[in-house]
Amino acid sequence: MKAIQIQTHGDPDVMTVHDVTRPEPGVGQVRIKVDASGVNFIDIYKRTGLYKVQLPLVLGEECAGTVDAVGSGVSGFKVGDRVASAFSSGAYAEYAIAAADKLVPLPAGVSTKQAAALLLQGMTAHYLVHSTFPTRSGHTMLIHAAAGGTGALAVQMAKQRGARVFGTTSTADKAKVARDAGADAVLDYANFESEVKRLTDGQGVDVVYDSVGKDTFDRSLNCLRPRGLLVLFGQASGAVPPFELQTLNAKGSLYVTRPSLGAYIQTREELLSRADDVLGWVAAGKLTLRIEREFALKDAPAAHRALASRGTTGKILLIP
What we know:
Layout lengths: L1 E5 L9 E4 L9 E10 L2 H8 L8 E2 L3 E9 L11 E4 L9 E5 L3 E3 L6 H21 L7 E4 L5 H12 L3 E6 L2 H10 L3 E4 L3 H8 L5 E6 L6 H6 L1 E9 L13 H5 L4 E3 L10 H16 L7 E6 L3 H9 L6 E5 L1
Parallel strand pairs: 9-10, 9-12, 10-11, 12-13, 13-14, 15-16
Antiparallel strand pairs: 1-2, 1-4, 3-5, 3-7, 3-16, 5-6, 6-8
């Protein structure tokens, strides 16, 4: 089969198409004939070596398609089922392997392309808004990169729960996307700290969702009310350097957490609950999903450059 494999860490051009052996599903696994693969920052982190992986490696973790083969010990899935996975192995390929207990069946009304664009970012937004900080009516929050794939979904979910939402964006086009998602105010990165203080009469917000990292972290802390929570769930601008924990005390007994999706779908019941919500909302038209661009498998380097540029306002897909 054709697959995007890296044999060394480096810039996007280390990703090249290789002919590799089509994988066979093991115990508890299924093989997916991939219709579309999601392109995510974790793929960039693995490609650059920020996350340590064994090489050579076929990149990609998120995909959707149809079950092509079933390993022993698998129940509940059969060849031909439409499925999606945010934890597949080697998703930048024509076929990928996924653990059956991490596989999600697709409802009618959701295409495989939509599922590949939604599952990881949708469940991330879901746990952020519903669990990391259980949002309710009256809460005020700041969401960085509010026009991005996860950010725009988080804005919509927070508004569904009655929150007052401020979002940061970098361009006028992105600001429109954030407003269309429901943001009450859209702020520029240059002055978001002062604007948050103005909009909250100096009180600050209950929670900041920060996927940008190094460039925004310190100012995000300054946007919080006493006992507020900073949720750092990405590092698009680079890793946050070590900081003195006493800072949290000095700024008002603040909280900081660094969550990941895996910790919020530890059981199959929790996985299906979150997936069913986000897939069902898209099918019912209650959640708007943006697919920014589709790239052929061979154009994976261009897809990574597009994502890393932070110029996108929706999901990027690879189509084998």
